[in-house]
Write a structure and sequence with these properties.
This protein is an alpha/beta fold and 497 residues long. It is 61% helix and 6% strand. The protein has 21 helices and five strands. The chain has a five-stranded mixed beta sheet with strand order 2-1-3-5-4, sandwiched between helices.
């Protein structure tokens, strides 16, 4: 294997592409129902807006484009996610090739991306905007180091485009280019790059991409910030300790993010840990400072905003360069990666493919052991039941809640799904004459039929429809023990205006 990869090191990138293809296939087969972030994209991608609640618009626009090409489905959701993850690895690999003389080390660094829990666990389970932010960091890193190495008009312009793309992918991305500016300014051999006239191209390209969304944020500031800050704050008995709580939570989230790739690197170079720890050069210091100052900016935000809770996925964009940093330290210590590629391949794909197996088992096998989750709710069975009653193709689906709405969009891809989220949706005051409208409500066990009837009546009132009189229900079996899920629904036909 070592000889094969020494002759054609690009095989590593091909294996990574194969992994994401496998992940795409596994997602299609493991469940026909959606995770939470997937339901949001299934719903939001029906509309092209400059902002979607607490998130920028770029991921949803990309999802809309994929849906136009292949139709809304599990496949379209998985295709975009795994395609972006591969692009992340591709640009990361190109960046590593710029900074690492040993091409084997560049491949080891890229494989290190797949050992990060955010990539091989959280992203495959249910992440969307963070996936695009990771790809943006990889693109920005490639553009940045290419420009530092060989300054050009194209390099400065690409760097600005990468900054703009990252900013409209996820807000927390902006700390990465800010940290890069500080890191470059600290290097006397590189700081002149910041005062090159071509920096105007970088700034102009970034501003051109970000400005429309900035104007939207100004007009929708509460919508854009409330949800995120609420999630970052936890109720505490002592408000005076929020700084300590937030700082410790930040440190813990950072350590969780870098622990696994660090442990694998330590295992590969166990006898050289001391030399690697002490080694340093210009590239190592630059990448290390970008990571360090990104985390310092996050810490300042924690202290300024009183944040007490920090999730590991929120720090993913700041620690993505960690595998590259480790391999730069290895290079600075004068060590080679030639004999380490095989064990790195083994450990990486054992972890990554192993977790795909866990996800597949969670979807297909866990119901046999009475273990259920959101992905087991039988929306497909409900849709199939309606189709068996006769030709059925609703023009509109009015769903009670985003979880049901996103799943029903997958089951009825040609219908416009409405959940009465007025921040996103424009509910028609007059429905098109003759339009077939399906109202649906489903909840956990314990709700009475009258509760469902009242809920559907309230739902109809919100969308300016008369209260439904013919309310039906269907119990859809799923799992291995006769378990069933109840759907209450009503079919309406809009009257002529």
């Amino acid at each position: 294997m070592r000889k094969v990869f020494s002759r054609n090191l690009d095989l590593t990138l091909i294996l990574i592409a194969g992994y994401f293809l496998l992940a795409f296939i596994v997602r299609i087969f493991r469940s026909s129902a959606l995770e939470i972030d997937e339901t949001q994209q299934a719903l939001l991608s029906q509309h092209l807006l400059l902002g979607y609640g607490s998130q920028p618009f770029l991921y949803t626009w990309l999802q809309h484009g994929v849906n136009v090409l292949v139709g809304p489905s599990i496949a379209s959701l998985s295709l975009l996610k795994n395609g972006l993850l591969f692009l992340c690895c591709l640009f990361f690999w190109l960046t590593a090739r710029l900074l690492l003389r040993d091409r084997t080390l560049a491949n080891i660094a890229t494989l290190g991306v797949l050992t990060m829990p955010t990539v091989f666990v959280m992203a495959q389970r249910d992440l969307t905007h963070t996936v695009l932010a990771l790809s943006s960091v990889a693109l920005f890193s490639y553009a940045l180091f290419m420009t530092l190495k060989a300054p050009s008009v194209g390099g400065y312009l690409l760097t600005g485009l990468a900054i703009g793309i990252g900013a409209i992918a996820k807000y927390n991305f902006v700390f990465v280019p800010l940290a890069a500016v500080v890191a470059i300014a600290m290097d006397k051999d590189l700081r002149q790059r910041l005062f090159d006239w071509r920096m105007l191209l970088t700034i102009g390209a970034a501003v051109a991409l970000v400005l429309p969304h900035c104007l939207w944020v100004v007009n929708h500031f509460d919508i854009a910030t409330t949800q995120t800050t609420r999630e970052m704050r936890e109720i505490s008995d002592s408000t005076t300790l929020y700084a300590v709580d937030g700082s410790l939570d930040l440190l813990l989230a950072f350590l969780k993010g870098v622990a696994l790739p660090s442990a694998i690197c330590a295992a590969l170079y166990f006898g050289d840990i001391k030399a690697i720890f002490r080694a340093s050069d210009q590239s190592t210091r630059l990448v290390g400072r970008i990571i360090l100052f990104s985390m310092i900016f996050v810490l300042l935000m924690v202290l300024a905003m009183g944040i007490t809770h920090m999730r590991q996925k929120w720090l993913a964009v700041y620690v993505l360069l960690w595998p590259l940093y480790l391999c730069l330290k290895v290079q600075a210590a004068g060590l080679s990666g030639e004999r380490k590629l095989k064990p790195m391949l083994t450990s990486t794909f054992t972890l990554a493919i192993g977790f795909l197996g866990v996800l597949l088992a969670r979807g297909l096998i866990s119901p046999h052991f009475e273990r259920y989750s959101l992905v087991h709710i039988p929306y497909d069975g409900f849709a199939e039941t309606l189709r068996h009653e006769g030709p059925f193709k609703p023009d509109y689906v009015i769903a009670f809640g985003g979880l049901a709405g996103g799943n029903l969009k997958i089951q009825f891809p040609d219908a416009m799904v409405v959940t009465t989220d007025t921040d996103i949706e424009t509910i028609p005051a007059l429905w098109p004459a003759g339009a077939v409208i399906l109202l649906v409500d489903t909840k956990d066990d314990g709700e009475s039929p009258e509760d469902f009837k009242d809920a559907l009546a309230s739902l109809a009132e919100r969308v300016s429809l008369p209260a439904p009189t013919d309310i039906r229900h269907v119990n859809v079996p799923y799992g291995a023990s006769g378990r069933s899920h109840t759907f209450y629904y009503s079919l309406e036909t809009a009257q002529s205006n």
